[in-house]
Design brief:
10-stranded parallel sheet; Udp-n-acetylmuramoylalanyl-d-glutamate--2,6- Diaminopimelate Ligase, Chain: A, domain 1; about 15% helix; 3 domains; 39 strands; UDP N-Acetylglucosamine Acyltransferase, domain 1; flat; alpha/beta; 11-stranded mixed sheet
């Protein structure tokens, strides 16, 4: 794919500073760009590399508009970079139509321009919207529904009756609709609680590789519109994730917990069951959340507490050896003073 710098400026909504007819054939990091590539500067500390870069042009913010190089000047360089990268990304390879090596059950409904690769299993009563792409090794069990323009990478498993919205991207190894972890302990062992609910994934959700999302015990586990999940995230039964939330790798959320809109969970954060995190809550990496958090708070540590409080605790922890030594010295002095004190005689 090739664009002129003027065409890119128009597509990115930026201000052009340089020759409009300059041809751009790709996008690359600032230290690896060639004279055919455009690159980007998102932080001031990278601007020093511009002089050595071979890039043909730069995407920059207004604070870098003085660079003596061809520029596209935008308010949000990182967002513009993402959009430019999408323009130069190679097209997705899709199987043309339905492979004869795929298995389709009874009463399957296919929209227009559906792609089903070899070795995919499509169960009875499955409904696929227009332009859905199913890659090799995927399993869609009975009565699964997937909305238009959704993409399933190889070896995705979606179990019976689960619903996926439009423009969803689900990466390899994800399992959606597995049984929730429900058992009743007894004298003779653990009795399994049948998991009768489903998983509902709304529009524009992306689910990373090897994520597991359990179906509801009763009712549903729901992933709201625009949610982005990194790899190896686990959501237990009846969890609700509010729209546009962001879950980083190895996050675990226990059963029946509700995450509000725009919640962000850092890597390896753990959230206990049957609690609520309000809209806009941010949880730092490796934190353990055991209680509900009001909207808008940023928390860290285990158990999670307001982030500034956690920072004060960390600061004190680094001084514990010194504090401990001072305490020992004080104890010694008190003991010495007590030993030398002469008790006054009583009358």
């Amino acid at each position: 794919m090739e664009y002129t710098l003027g065409e890119l400026a128009a597509l990115l909504g930026g201000r052009l500073q340089g020759p409009a007819d300059l041809k751009i054939q790709g996008i690359a990091a600032i230290d690896r760009a060639t004279p055919r590539d455009i690159t980007f500067i998102t932080q001031k500390r990278f601007a020093r590399l511009a002089a050595q870069s071979q890039a043909a042009a730069f995407i920059v913010g207004p604070d870098q508009a003085q660079l003596p190089r061809p520029l596209i000047i935008v308010e949000q360089p990182y967002l513009a970079y993402a959009r430019a990268a999408a323009l130069f990304a190679p097209p997705l390879s899709r199987w043309p139509g339905v492979s004869p090596l795929a298995f389709l059950g009874r009463e399957v409904e296919l929209g227009q321009d559906v792609s089903i690769a070899p070795l995919a299993y499509i169960g009875n009563g499955v409904r696929l919207g227009d332009r859905v792409t199913i890659m090799p090794g995927c399993v869609l069990q009975d009565r699964v529904q997937i909305g238009a323009d959704s993409l399933l990478y190889p070896h995705v498993t979606i179990l019976e009756r689960c619903l996926v919205g439009q423009r969803a991207i689900i990466h390899s190894g994800a399992v959606i609709g597995s049984d929730g972890f429900g058992f009743v302990p007894g004298k003779e062992g653990h009795t399994k609680i049948p998991q009768l609910g489903i998983v509902v994934i709304e529009d524009d959700v992306e689910i990373g590789a090897n994520c597991t999302i359990d179906r509801g015990a009763l009712g549903e586990t729901r992933i709201g519109r625009g949610v982005k999940m990194d790899n190896l995230v686990h959501l237990a039964h009846n969890v609700t994730v509010g729209e546009h939330s962001f879950l980083v790798a190895q996050v675990g959320v226990a059963g029946s917990t509700k995450l509000g809109k725009g919640v962000a969970l850092g890597g390896q954060a753990g959230v206990a069951g049957h609690i609520e995190l309000g809209d806009g809550v941010q949880v730092a990496a490796q934190s353990g959340v055991s209680h509900s958090i009001p909207p808008g708070q940023t928390v860290s540590w285990t158990p999670a507490r307001p982030h500034m409080e956690s920072l004060r605790i960390v600061n004190l922890l680094s001084k514990l050896p010194e504090i401990h030594q001072k305490l020992k010295d004080l104890e010694k002095r008190v003991s010495e003073l007590a030993a030398t004190t002469v008790e006054e005689p009583r009358e």
